[in-house]
Design a protein that fits this description.
With 276 residues, the protein is an alpha/beta fold. It has 10 helices and 7 strands. The protein has one domain: Rossmann fold (3-Layer(aba) Sandwich). Strand 2, helix 2 and strand 3 form a beta-alpha-beta unit. The protein is globular and about 55 Å long. The structure holds NADP nicotinamide-adenine-dinucleotide phosphate (NAP). The site of NADP nicotinamide-adenine-dinucleotide phosphate has 31 residues, from helix 1, helix 4 and helix 6.
C-alpha cells in the first residue's frame, strides 16, 4: 500500500465482535490500526497481526486522553475514528435503575462524544478525517424492553447528523453505520441482565419472550457475521466521498423500510410478531 493510501485508524471496542473483526481486516489491508477497549488482553491478536492495542474506558476522560495522546505521539495524525464501543441495556423501563440507564448513556453517547472531542482538534488541524459512528438499525426502529438502548442509538443518529454539518467546513466526514443482527458478544452481554431485571414480576412474560427471541435471532446461521460490517467499514475507509449512512446485516434494510413507510401500528405488529 502506498504511503498516501495508508491511514491511521482508531477503533474503539476492538476487544470483540465487529470492532475486533474490522481491526484485523484493516491491519491486513495495510493500515496503521489502533484498537482500544477495557480488556487489553483480548486484543493480543491485533498486536500479533501488526496492529496496536490500547487500554480504553470511554467513560473515563483520562483514559480517553491517554489513548488519543499515544496515537498522536506515535503517528502524528488520526485519519479515521471508528466509534464502535457500546452495549445494550435491556429490561422494562420500570425495572431498570436510573443508574443502569445513565451508564448506558455514559458509554453509548457521552463516552463516544468524549472520544470524538479528543480526536477532533487533530482532524481539524489536518483539515481531513472520517468519523464513523456505529449506530444500529435500532437507531431508526424499536423493540420492547429496549427503551434505554434504542434511545441512545436514536440520539446518536441525530447527534451525528448535527456533527456532519458542523465538521463539513473542516473537511471531516461523519458517517453513520446501521448494523442489523450481527453475531458478536452483544446478545450475551444483554441477555442475563434483561432476565435479572424483568424475568419475573409484571413484565416477566414479555421479558422472557424478548430473551427467547434474542437467543433465536442471534443463533449461528440466523444472524450475519461481523465480516458484513467489516467489508462496509473497509469500503468507507477507502471512499473519497462516503455516503452519510450505510445499513447492512440481517434485517437492517427490511426492518428500517417497514418502520419508515408503514407507520407505528404496523411496525408495532411486525415487531411483536417476533416476540412470542
Ligand atoms: P461486542 O462484541 O459486545 O463488542 C462491544 C465492544 O465494546 C467490546 O470490545 C467492549 O470491550 C467495548 N466496550 C464496551 N464498553 C466499553 C467501555 N466503557 N469502554 C471501552 N470499550 C467498551 O458487541 P458488538 O456487536 O461488536 O458491538 C459493537 C457496536 O455495534 C456497539 O455499539 C453496538 O451497539 C453496535 N451494534 C451491534 C449490533 C449487533 O447485532 N451485534 C447491532 C447493531 C449495533 P471491553 O468490554 O473490553 O471494554
Amino acid at each position: 500500500m502506498s504511503q498516501l493510501n495508508k491511514q491511521v485508524i482508531f477503533i474503539t471496542g476492538a476487544s470483540s465482535g465487529m470492532g475486533k473483526d474490522a481491526a484485523l481486516q484493516l491491519i491486513k489491508e495495510g493500515h496503521i490500526v489502533y484498537g482500544a477497549a477495557r480488556r487489553v488482553q483480548q486484543m493480543e491478536d491485533l498486536t500479533k497481526a501488526g496492529g496496536h492495542a490500547l487500554p480504553l474506558d470511554v467513560t473515563d476522560e483520562n483514559s480517553v486522553k491517554k489513548a488519543v495522546d499515544t496515537i498522536i505521539k506515535n503517528e502524528g495524525r488520526i485519519d479515521v475514528l471508528v466509534n464502535n464501543a457500546g452495549y445494550a441495556v435491556y429490561g422494562a423501563v420500570e425495572d431498570t435503575t436510573l443508574d443502569d440507564a445513565r451508564r448506558q448513556y455514559e458509554v453509548n453517547i457521552f463516552g463516544l462524544a468524549a472520544v470524538t472531542k479528543a480526536v477532533l482538534p487533530h482532524m481539524r488541524e489536518q483539515h481531513s478525517g472520517k468519523i464513523i459512528n456505529i449506530s444500529s438499525m435500532g437507531g431508526k426502529m424499536y423493540t420492547p424492553m429496549g427503551a434505554w438502548y434504542h434511545s441512545t442509538k436514536h440520539a446518536l443518529e441525530g447527534w451525528s447528523d448535527c456533527l456532519r454539518l458542523e465538521l463539513k467546513p473542516f473537511g471531516i466526514d461523519v458517517v453513520i453505520v446501521e448494523p442489523g443482527i450481527i453475531k458478536t458478544e452483544f446478545a450475551d452481554v444483554m441477555h442475563q441482565p434483561l432476565l435479572d431485571r424483568s424475568g419475573s414480576g409484571p413484565y416477566a412474560k414479555m421479558a422472557n419472550a424478548v430473551a427467547g427471541a434474542t437467543e433465536k435471532s442471534y443463533a449461528k446461521g440466523q444472524s450475519s457475521s461481523p465480516e458484513v460490517i467489516t467489508r462496509l467499514l473497509s469500503k468507507i475507509v477507502r471512499s473519497r466521498k462516503p455516503k452519510t449512512r450505510y445499513a447492512a446485516g440481517k434485517f437492517a434494510k427490511p426492518m428500517m423500510w417497514i418502520r419508515k413507510y408503514l407507520g407505528d401500528r404496523i411496525f408495532d405488529a411486525v415487531v411483536m410478531s417476533q416476540v412470542k
